[in-house]
């Protein structure tokens, strides 16, 4: 489960980029499917690092190391999942 924290607003003299707002999950609210996916992936820590960086800098260009780490984690997870699916298909085919 991910809790999204409100982002402090910067001075109005600073031009605003993306509105990177985060919301707090209510008890009676279902968990976001994307949050569920990230949680199951094992990449929650790197996703949280991206969220924290974006909240702090409000500029994705300053968060490239965090974005890359999250991307790498998700790619590794996807490769593991593909291998597992392939292994299951091979086992199912061998039993028939």
Secondary structure elements and pairings:
Elements: H1 33-41, H2 44-57, H3 64-94
Provide a descriptive summary of the structure in words.
Pfam families: CHCH. Residues 1-30, 76-96 are annotated as: Disordered. With 96 residues, this protein is mainly alpha-helical. The protein has a domain at 40-95. 56% of the residues lie in helices and 0% in strands. The chain has three helices and no strands. The protein has helices spanning 33-41, 44-57, 64-94. The protein is elongated. Residues 5-16 have low confidence and may be disordered.
Residue-averaged pLDDT? 80
Q: What structural class do the secondary elements suggest? A: mainly alpha
Shape: elongated
Question: Helical stretch count?
Answer: 3
Order of helices and strands: HHH
Give the biggest beta sheet: none
As a percent range, the share of strand residues is: under 5%
Total E-strand runs: 0
What oligomeric state do the depicted chains represent? single chain
Cα gyration radius (Å): 18 Å
Q: Percent range for helical residues?
A: 55-70%
How far the N terminus sits from the C terminus, by CA atoms, comes to 40 Å
Q: pLDDT under 50 segments (min length 5)?
A: 5-16
